[in-house]
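As the work plan foresaw, our protein records have gained a structure token line. A representative record is set out beneath this paragraph:
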Amino acid sequence: MSDHRAHQDSPDARPAGAPAQHADDAEAQAFRELLRGLRVWDVALPSFDPATAPAEPLPLFRQWLREAAEAGVPEPHTMTLATADAAGNPSVRTLMLHDADERGWHFASHRGSRKGRELAVRPRAALGFYWPAVGRQVRVSGPVTVAGPEESAADLHHRSTGALAAALVGRQSEVLGSVEELARSSEAAWERARREPAAPVPSWTLYVLRPEEVEFFQGDAQRRHVRLNYRYGNGRWTQDLLWP
């Protein structure tokens, strides 16, 4: 009986003059239909036999990134970075991987950016890579350390003129007054970057995430996904298969 009353109250109970919701409802339904109609992995995907995986995750990560590039994935070194502030509120953004070696996964930013501030109070992070052309994902998590000023400067100056210009603009994550202000600052930064290819940017910081957990996910069109999880503890890596 309560269900029947709720049905009667809507839409007749809407106050006079209130805007109709039909257009919004139709737009919402169209959006849901769009999402449900999008296809996933309509191409042949590679297989992955976890029995052939190396004892440590780094060689497999390098292999998968190279294979993603060879498969035509645009910018396969693009990744998501998740951090959290002092209260534990998470934030996520997309940026580029600068290196992956025995020390860990490398990325960089300004110390005063949101990610820099959050890493200063909570020096842990998680990374996510997704390569749809091959149906693969990699997740990496662990503590983050800060490289020294010389290594941070070398990281920046090995990159493009555009990267240096963007770094010279600075003020990342601060409130911007107008797009015109950004245009003026960017133009000046480009001029300086071309004139001084070794221009210093003291706030530029290289970060290294030392992995404690690395998961490799190989998608399967029949949803029999393969998930191989590496964990580091007691001085060595162990492996586990995870249910998809």
